[in-house]
Amino acid sequence: MAVASTPTSPQTDNFDVIVIGSGIGGLVTATQLAAKGAKVLVLESYTIPGGSSGSFERNGYCFDQGASMIFGFGDKGTTNLLTRALDAVKVHLETAPDPVQIHYHLPDGLDLEVHRNYEKFLQELGSRFPHEREGIRQFYDECWKVFNCLNAMPLLSLEEPRYLMQVFFQHPLACLGLVKYLPLNAGDIARKYIKDPALLKFIDIECYCWSVVPAEMTPMINAGMVFSDRHYGGINYPKGGVGQIAKKLAEGLVNAGSTIRYQSRVDKIITEKGRAVGVKLTTGAEYRAKRIVSNATRWDTFDKLLGDRQLPQKEETWRSRYRKSPSFISLHLGVEAGVLPPDSACHHIVLDQWQKMEEPEGTIFVSIPTLLDPSLAPDGYHIIHTFTPSWIKDWEGMSSEEYEEKKEEAAGRIIDRLEEIFPGLDAGLDYMEVGTPRSHRRFLNRVDGTYGPIPRRKLLGLLGMPFNRTSIPGLYCVGDSTFPGQGLNAVAFSGFACAHRIGVDLGL
Ligand SMILES: Cc1cc2nc3c(=O)[nH]c(=O)nc-3n(C[C@H](O)[C@H](O)[C@H](O)COP(=O)(O)OP(=O)(O)OC[C@H]3O[C@@H](n4cnc5c(N)ncnc54)[C@H](O)[C@@H]3O)c2cc1C
Question: What region holds the Amine oxidase domain (predicted)?
Fold first, then answer.
């Protein structure tokens, strides 16, 4: 792997592109460009790559920092963007197929599993809402229409007119299909077919668990991807932990002749005559390149990395439409294997009251990756990574004793609720590390520890999400605050698009 230290003297290396941050968005941009022959420098402030999709080790356990339900590892179509990103730099990862995407534990005893097999899932949901069997099929079948359009075309930059023309002539029906769905939200389509309020609530949590907003605010394009790909390419867990994806991409990047430096925190983006031309690290070291890409959030990019300059109108408009979602309280637990009931699913969602779905500590997310890769924990133990939404403002302005006490109390509340599905959890605990929105802000380098942007109000689907180019010439953004939003496969899409646009701009 490339050098970890940071030179302090002025740099004379000529880079084509500098990427600030090694999240999956940044790494896919970097590897795609390196594969086209560009000389790329990735600067990551942390000691390892991956950002919200990194992994860390404690006491014999390998924990995922954030993401653990992974789309994009399919072996067919065009939406398998993680498989494609790794292939582009000739690296490979073994994955384990997950037979169940989520086991839901919902209010009013609604307990069901989303099976990898589409018909089995429709069967199970239909048995809970027999009077809505037809509406259920119509709604999810319409999601397939979106997915089939996406999965028929190469997913590259929508800011590149020649590509758009080419794709349109090669796949006219798919393109027209997508144009139709672009301004729509999943709730619009769900209400066309489904009337039962309890079932509409279920569609809400189906969206909320990855978009963190209910169906009426969740773009149909994203819903079409998630609700279909889970049955097509499926959910697949990378052997060795989610952090392996970023590690492999970093390895491929270096093999392709580019560079990644860790513990290299960018303090400022250098501009000359209004154009982004380089970056300055907190150490004072400076690097220059023909193009600069920020994988930090748009808030971090424009408020911190660009200094005091006036916010461009385009960013102001974006901020008037989108706000920061909450962060999370996360528990990384090592537990005795006996705690898990036989045949437990890897991912669970727990919610006691529908009206609390969007509230802090309302919905609890659970992931048990050792069910798919036992090597992540010592023999006889499992990992439980559980998290629930929480705002940064509730964790500030307290002494370190108060902070520790508040963490303990929050952990206690989560564990008490999880005892309902994993009786004996508290007694079977071997290890616990508690993260708060402050930890997310610090270790993931994300303003307020936010999960990402969410609409302030009902918007026209995905039409308001910005692409990769910014109002600053030479500066591009990539990652979850660009089209099409949060999630590993989504930020990989953003990375493919960003590299494509830069490749065209640089004539690669
Ligand atoms: C708890 C949690 C659970 C999640 N679960 C899932 C899931 O199951 N499935 C899924 O698909 N997605 C999930 N997600 C979302 C997914 O992880 C993110 O959408 C995605 O990883 C974001 O990738 P990114 O490329 O935008 O940037 P990030 O992952 O945010 O990475 C940005 C990188 O840039 C670096 N950086 C920032 N500023 C600087 C600077 N100034 N100088 C140098 N480096 C800098 C950061 O250190 C970081 O490494 C989850 C997220 C969280 C937090």
Answer: 24-502
